[in-house]
Design brief:
Elements lengths: L2 H4 L6 H16 L7 H17 L21 H9 L4 H11 L5 H4 L12 H6 L3 H17 L1 H10 L3 H10 L8 H14 L2 H13 L1 H9 L1
Helix pairs in contact: 2-3, 2-4, 3-5, 8-9, 8-10, 8-12, 9-13, 11-12
Pfam families: BROMI_C
Protein name: BROMI protein
InterPro entries: BROMI_C, Rab-GAP_TBC_sf
Length: about 220
C-alpha cells in the first residue's frame, strides 16, 4: 500500500495500547531498537488496509462485526518481533503467508468478516478457529485427558474458551518467547492440526494443577 493511503488509517486506543506492550516486550527481549513503535504502527495500518479489501459488508449490532477488528493483532506483533522489528520484511512474509490455509488458524484477524467465509459464518460472529480447532481440542481432551475434561465440565467452564484465548493471543503471557516461536513455526511447517496438539499438551502439562484446583 502507498504511504499516503496507509496514513489515512488510524489505530484505535486498544491497538495503541497493544503496540506499547509489544514494543516494551520486544525491548525486554533485546529484539527491538529505538523507534520500533513507528514501524509497528505502520505495519498494522498496512495490514488493516490490505485486509479491508477482503471484507464483506455486514450490518449487525454485534461488536465483533463492526468494520474494525475488535481486538489487537497479536500474530502480526509476534512476526514483527521474530523479524527483529523489520516492518518491510514482516509485511512481505504476511503477504505470502496469507495464501496458505494455516494463516486462517494462526492469524485470526485474517478472516475477520472475510469474503473467503460463507455469509452465514460471517454473520454468526464466530471465528472458524472456535468451531474447528477448539471443537477438536474438546473432543481430543475427552479421549486423552478424561480427568481434565471432567474437571472443566464440573466447573461449568469450557476448555474451548481457554484455548481460544491462548490462540488469539499467540500464547503471549502464557508461554516464554522461545515456546511462542516454536508454536508458530510448528504450525506453519507441520500444519494447523498441530495447534490442537499444542493445546492438548499444555493441558497435559497442567493436569495436576487443574485437578488440584478442582478438589479445592
Amino acid at each position: 500500500a502507498m504511504d499516503a493511503d496507509v496514513k489515512t488509517e488510524s489505530l484505535s486506543p486498544l491497538q495503541q495500547l497493544g503496540v506499547e506492550m509489544t514494543v516494551r516486550y520486544g525491548k525486554y527481549l533485546n529484539l527491538l531498537k529505538e523507534h520500533a513503535e513507528n514501524g509497528l504502527c505502520f505495519l498494522l495500518m498496512n495490514c488493516e488496509k490490505f485486509l479491508k479489501q477482503q471484507q464483506r459488508t455486514v450490518v449487525s449490532s454485534l461488536c465483533c462485526l463492526q468494520e474494525r477488528y475488535a481486538g489487537y493483532d497479536w500474530f502480526v506483533s509476534s512476526v514483527f518481533l521474530i523479524m527483529s522489528g523489520d516492518g518491510e520484511k514482516t509485511l512481505t512474509f504476511l503477504q505470502r503467508f496469507s495464501r496458505l490455509l494455516v494463516s486462517a488458524f494462526l492469524w485470526l484477524r485474517r478472516l475477520h468478516m472475510s469474503i473467503h467465509l460463507p455469509v452465514t459464518t460471517v454473520e454468526s460472529g464466530i471465528h472458524p478457529v472456535y468451531f474447528c480447532s477448539a471443537h477438536h481440542i474438546e473432543m481430543l481432551l475427552k479421549a486423552e485427558l478424561p480427568l481434565v475434561s471432567s474437571a472443566f465440565h464440573m466447573s461449568g467452564f469450557t476448555p474451548s474458551q481457554i484455548c481460544l484465548q491462548w490462540i488469539t493471543q499467540c500464547f503471549w503471557n502464557y508461554m516464554d518467547w522461545r515456546e511462542i516461536c516454536h508454536y508458530i513455526a510448528i504450525c506453519i511447517f507441520l500444519g494447523p492440526d498441530y495447534q490442537i496438539y499444542m493445546c492438548i499438551s499444555v493441558f497435559r502439562h497442567l493436569q495436576q494443577d487443574i485437578l488440584k484446583h478442582t478438589e479445592a
